[in-house]
Amino acid sequence: MSQSMKLTDEKLYSLKTVSKKMFRLISDRLNVNTAYVTKRGESAMTVLSSFNKDAQTIPEGYSVEYGDTYCRLIILDDADVMTTSDLNKDEITKKLEVTSQLGVKGFLGVTLKDLDGNIFGTLCVMDQEEKNFTQDDIDYLHTSAEILSYLIELDQTRQHINYLSVPIIPITEKVSILTLQGIVDETRAERIMNEAMQYGAEKEIDYFLFDLSKLAVQDQVFPTILYNIVQALRIMGIEVIITGITPKFAQLESNNNQLSKMGVKTVNSIQAALDLIGYRLIEK
Length: 284
Known about the structure:
Transcription Regulator spoIIAA, Beta-Lactamase, alpha/beta, 5-stranded mixed sheet, 6-stranded antiparallel sheet, 40% helix, GAF, STAS_dom, 2 domains, elongated, 9 helices, 25% strand, Anti-anti-sigma factor, GAF-like_dom_sf
């Protein structure tokens, strides 16, 4: 699965649901109060799901800047693990602000990756009492993390399938809207082009209104893909008008000016696009 397929928290249903069921088993097996999964963001680590047997130590949604986390120590370790019997006595962790905030001692954490080896976050356990975790304990938590990796893949696959759809909405016999949502990689772009061209030919439409308001643009890939789609439709005699341009897309376009060079018309709403070509939506 592509690393660009980044999942928002609400899309991680499988990971969140199953991890909650696993946490009680992990807690019993390692004799700890707390087990949790974190997700790495651009600058912080956020607790995605958690379990606290007795004391409420780590709530879901708890977020800490990456540089002040135990997660950073886990991810930077060659073995993808960090453990200490007492966070307050360890020379590195006792200096972290989070240690005084949490008030816990025993800690064990491993890196959580997807099946492609990309770092997703961490799987951790902690307790109010000192804990000396064995190599068997570490191996057990690594195995648990590997199981969770398959759930990340499942959530990625589900999102990828949803993104593969190409929603085309007819407005009139000659005008249709193509709404582009989510991430558009090369595979999905090819499908969009094929379906748009096939639809345009079968319906003999004159105008395609491309709505980009729900589009997620990454790595400056999509502007070139959009250029190719517009060119293909133009060859077929279909005019493209673009609406719903996001600030990020506008920034990328200002750097390459591909749409400007093609003379593609851009407007700020679907209604404005319809006005431009002489159509108007009338409420009954």
